[in-house]
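Input record, target 12 of the design panel.
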């Protein structure tokens, strides 16, 4: 068996994205992703997926060059390779990363987001070479299916008039009735039984009313609300008090560990985060101050599937819960998320996934949810296959774009509908 990496193909694509609203603005009609193919000397190809914005492509290209001649099994070595790739300082804002609201942008996080795509591709290749599923390479699954939650969004029926886009049949959701209707569709189509609402879009009273309406329509179902740090400590406490009896947890009500710690100290409602604990370096302060009760891992920016397992082990040590964050992603990432989630013993909350919102994919067969769960594949590697025609089609769209969509910018997308829109200051309420 020859696991030497002979070639690496990077294919940036643009995939359709519905007009989902968040505190920064609205999703663009198409969002960038990067598809990674790693081919070994034996002709085995492993696939991976990560963010596709320019700053990631700039890192992925030199990274890919350095991989040639290395072993696909040398997963630990990927981090050393990443350290050798220079990050353009202008790409590191020190501000909250706009696309997906996943904490402060740093050079390390940029690097780890690139590593993750290659790590998944190498694991896929290794699994295919050995005839073993990725979960076996990660130590073995402890469950046969992974539960996901319905990821509810306030949204418009379609993108603004005149914007080229794909259409869908979800309809608008801009009030409690619309949110409940969307949740019903999620339950009918995918069998989800826990619901997360992306908040920070309307005034807290309106979002409280939406969660109340969900609680009434789906009694006993776990509910979550995530305003992406848009609230002050006092507003967070008010929402916690009003919804404490129906929330499974409140996700990033306030921005940053100090604010989260203050909220946590004054409410019994568990707090979850994918914004103040997004790197290993941020764990110590947050856990010492008891600022969060659930960490939402994301293998993309934590640096891969094995780092996700390490994060889960640290959470277990400190009695902190663990679940999974999601950004716009395709089936390769859903497969990767499912493999790693199947190996985490202390996964006690349904994972988030945007996947139902993505009408397009690069797989020969779409991933499916049964009763809100994705079955863990026992096929070699990730257990999914790349459809090269679909990949070419989505890459063509990326090539044809004049540059406006190659970097995700939810505020710019909102300005198409509202020319005066600027990213609101935090806390917004
Ligand atoms: Mg979140």
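The sequence produced for target 12 reads:
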């Amino acid at each position: 068996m020859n696991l030497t990496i002979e070639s690496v193909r990077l294919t940036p694509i643009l995939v359709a994205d519905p007009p989902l609203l968040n505190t920064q603005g609205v999703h663009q009609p198409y969002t960038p992703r990067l598809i990674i193919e790693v081919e070994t000397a034996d002709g085995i190809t492993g696939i991976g997926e990560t963010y596709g914005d320019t700053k990631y492509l700039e890192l992925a290209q030199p990274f890919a060059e350095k991989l040639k001649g290395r072993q696909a099994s040398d997963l630990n070595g990927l981090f050393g390779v990443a350290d050798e790739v220079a990050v353009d300082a202008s790409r590191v804002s020190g501000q909250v990363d706009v696309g997906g609201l996943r904490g402060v942008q740093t050079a390390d996080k940029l690097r780890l987001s690139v590593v993750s795509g290659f790590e998944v591709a190498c694991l896929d290749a290794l699994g295919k070479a050995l005839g073993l599923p990725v979960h076996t390479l990660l130590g073995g699954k402890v469950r046969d299916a992974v539960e996901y939650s319905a990821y509810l969004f306030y949204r418009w029926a379609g993108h603004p008039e005149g914007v080229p886009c794909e259409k869908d049949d979800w309809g608008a959701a801009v009030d409690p009735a619309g949110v409940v209707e969307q949740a019903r569709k999620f339950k009918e189509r995918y069998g989800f039984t826990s619901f997360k609402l992306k908040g920070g879009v309307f005034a807290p009273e309106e979002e409280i009313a939406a969660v109340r309406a969900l609680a009434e329509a789906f009694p006993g179902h776990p509910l979550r609300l995530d305003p992406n740090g848009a609230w002050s400590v006092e507003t967070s406490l008010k929402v916690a008090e009003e919804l404490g009896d129906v929330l499974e947890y409140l996700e990033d009500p306030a921005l940053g560990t100090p604010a989260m710690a203050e909220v946590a100290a004054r409410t019994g409602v568990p707090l979850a985060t994918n914004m103040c604990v997004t790197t290993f370096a941020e764990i110590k302060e947050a856990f010492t101050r008891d600022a969060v009760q659930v960490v939402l891992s994301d293998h993309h920016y934590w640096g891969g599937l094995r780092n996700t397992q390490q994060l889960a082990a640290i959470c277990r040590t400190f009695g902190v819960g663990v679940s999974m964050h999601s950004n716009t992603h395709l089936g390769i990432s859903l497969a990767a998320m499912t493999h790693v989630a199947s190996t985490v013993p202390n996964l006690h909350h349904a994972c988030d996934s945007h996947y139902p919102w993505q009408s397009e994919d690069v797989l020969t067969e779409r991933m499916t949810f049964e009763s809100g769960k994705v079955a863990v594949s026992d096929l070699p590697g990730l257990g999914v296959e790349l459809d090269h025609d679909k990949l070419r089609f989505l890459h063509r769209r990326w090539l044809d774009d004049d540059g406006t969509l190659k970097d995700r910018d939810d505020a710019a997308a909102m300005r198409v509908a509202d020319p005066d829109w600027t990213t609101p200051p935090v806390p917004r309420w």
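The longest helix spans residues 107-130.
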